[in-house]
Queue: 4 jobs
Job 1
Amino acid sequence: MRILFIGDIFGRPGRHLVAERVPELVKQRGIDLVIANAENAAAGFGLTPSIAIELLGLGIDVLTTGNHVWDKRELVEFFQQSEHNFNENARRVLRPANFPAGSPGWGHFEGKTRRDVPFAVVNLQGRTFMAANEDPFRAADAILKSISAKVVLVDFHAEATSEKVAFGWYLDGRVTAVVGTHTHIPTADERVLPKGTAYITDVGMSGPYDSVIGVEKELALHRFLSGMPARFEPAKGDPRLCAVIIECDRDTGRASAIERVMLGPHEHHQPGKQ
């Protein structure tokens, strides 16, 4: 079984590249399950219901988010309405499970692939250099007790590499994969841990790389050089899709391989090559 996880989709350039490249990648590599972090898909900050539905319509099975999930008020209302009137699309959009009790939305999703394989996706957020949410380690323990699927992917949206690495070791052998998001910078430490969990510290951003983590360079430089606040605008140039492909046993959930993917608009993916 093969899982495609797409790193932080940033703004329109990221969405367009996902629409252009993902169907081809799914067909070429025989992908069974597609997951993407989409917390910055709406002009680089937040996610709207219409964009969520657009991305799900491209064949993405589950969308994860992170600290920018509440940037667009419409998504809060989307979750709140869906808690009273079941909405399949809303249920496939996650917010970190360790947010304060009573937060709208859901932190994990269980479903079946098109080949009828049970799977689960868990969304959690780190605490180091980020908001003081509930302990993600203990939140993971509680969620995993309730999940029956063997194939389980965890999106750990966190800042500190140490916290991400520790989290990977903590869940080794208990989930199929722990993939890091949030920094928008892909790391080169992908590996399968000893007990069968695929791991990478950060998948990277799917968006404009002629930028400072997605933002127009001049605006980011102005803030660094002047110390003055500035309104950030999403950049447009050099869009790239960053993702990982994880191979695992459908019956045990144990991972056997993880491969980084970085693609521009016209590049052809060659397995095993970046």
Job 2
Amino acid sequence: MRRAAPSATRAAHRLGWLLLCVTFAACASESETETAASSSGTPAAEPAPSAYVVRLDSDRSDPGQFQLTEEGPALRILTGPAGIAYRAEDAVQSGDFRVDATFTQYGAPVGYREAYGLFLGGLELDGPELEYTYLLVRPTGDFLIKRRIGEITETIVDWTPHTAIRVVAAEGDEPENTVTVEVADGQLNFILNGQLAHSMLATEARPFGITGLRANHRLDVRVTNWTLAISATR
């Protein structure tokens, strides 16, 4: 994720490997790891811990089935169970800000209805009373806005078609969608590929807190241009 502000130089955040089995090709078997270590004469290096935290929707889900890897400046997310990924430092306490991410979806058949997107206003994300508001899109061309508090989710905008969303129209399509949420002049705006999809008073959604990514079940998405920009006037 890139973090930007008019008063500071935008810096690229270093993304490490999660302590999960997180690559398609790098999840070698134990025997392969032992062979590589013995042939080189030195123990195989342990992967660096990631700055990203993953929180699954259900405590009963297997964390190893939510895989997040670095692909250069991008992130690749493959899911079995649904969940969120975030970094504690990507937080906003007040004022105006904007969060953007571009998602490319792979392997979705026509009519596939699992969704991905952004969340903001994350509070108590490591506890039972977590809170956040999220904007999701899916490759059938519709979007959803919800608020989660603990185990309860409140629908702000139910699944609604929007012409800005790029869809899976034929087998093999890999739609790319840029999802944006911003707080500006007291309004909370939800933007899809540059087009405003919904706007509401920021105070109605409690937007301040941690920002991050959300991916539902059985998805393969690549995330680029993941940026948090904070107004210098806040």
Job 3
Amino acid sequence: MKPTNTKKSASMLQKNLSPLNVWAISFGCAVGWGAFMMPGTTFLPIAGPLGTVISMLISAAIMLIIGVNYHFMINHSPDAGGAFTYVRTNLSYDHGFLCSWFLAIVYISIAWANATALPLIFRYFMGKKFQFGFHYQIAGYDVYFGEALLSIFAILLIGGICYAGNRIPGIVQTVCALIMIAGIIIFFIAAVIHLSKNGFNIVPYYPPAKYRSLG
């Protein structure tokens, strides 16, 4: 199937996001709960400081490759629909249908993952404030009614922001991204000051238990 000319349909689209808004949305999609918590709670105990740095550099390289591919896709099919439009235009409607289903599954999984990450953040900063109401376990994980309400509130809030207007979601995302970057800079400066007073030492580079298992 030959690619169709999408310039005419793309020119009819209304631009509501500035380059800064697009960057903020991309930044928010790439950086989340795992980028801040998993290095300390999961990566460092398993891989050690050097192993964690190597794995994060590899992950960053993979994200850059994905970004380059999306850049090519957007320039080739600058129309609403993203990956679906690209696949439908260059392959067929059947492939576009399959692509849409896979994208829907991915977006749904990301939505609930981000919504359930919010109670984890509140657990770290507010303790058991939202652990009230009925309580049950799923795969050994405790679920509380208060934390479920918190996730539902977050989903409704974000949905309301997206429904409110064309420019509002981009503005809100940009403000949140800038606040996040400001927090990262503040914590980085605090860490540098702390290390300058107490010394910088990442030895052992890998967990000693891993050395013994490999030996």
Job 4
Amino acid sequence: MHLLSLSRIGFLSLLSVLFFSCGPDYLYENTQTLESEEWSYADSISFEITIADTSHLYELVVEVEHATVYPRQNLYTRISTDFPDGTRLSKPVSLELADKTGFWYGDCNSDWCSIDIPIQTNAFFNQAGTYRFTLEQFTRIDPLPGVRKVGFAVRDLGLR
């Protein structure tokens, strides 16, 4: 009976190590806090990441912390990418924060919600070097109230 208990403890220990070690593999993650809890047009937010290995696929994620009284279902942004060779691409991106009935996505408490929104999956970087991602508030409200944090993450999905 004693050996059976030790076997179960060993198995559960191994299982818990495997479970907790199999999280997302983030190559980069950074969050910036908007002290005034509002995002104005003038407050663009930039993140720089250096890519050395161009053989991997990645997932690009925008992280947002917003008030539960945020006045919209989504958050319009303009996301620009500056490539190592100096070229720049920009496009508007709608970050969906709630469904059509007003139910917030993400993790919420009574005052704030936090959500990670994948904006591109299976992305690859075809140039080694430093990339800059710039997020700009792109709604019709300036400043936009109820936004406390904006972050950016790059998750390594492995070889392509």
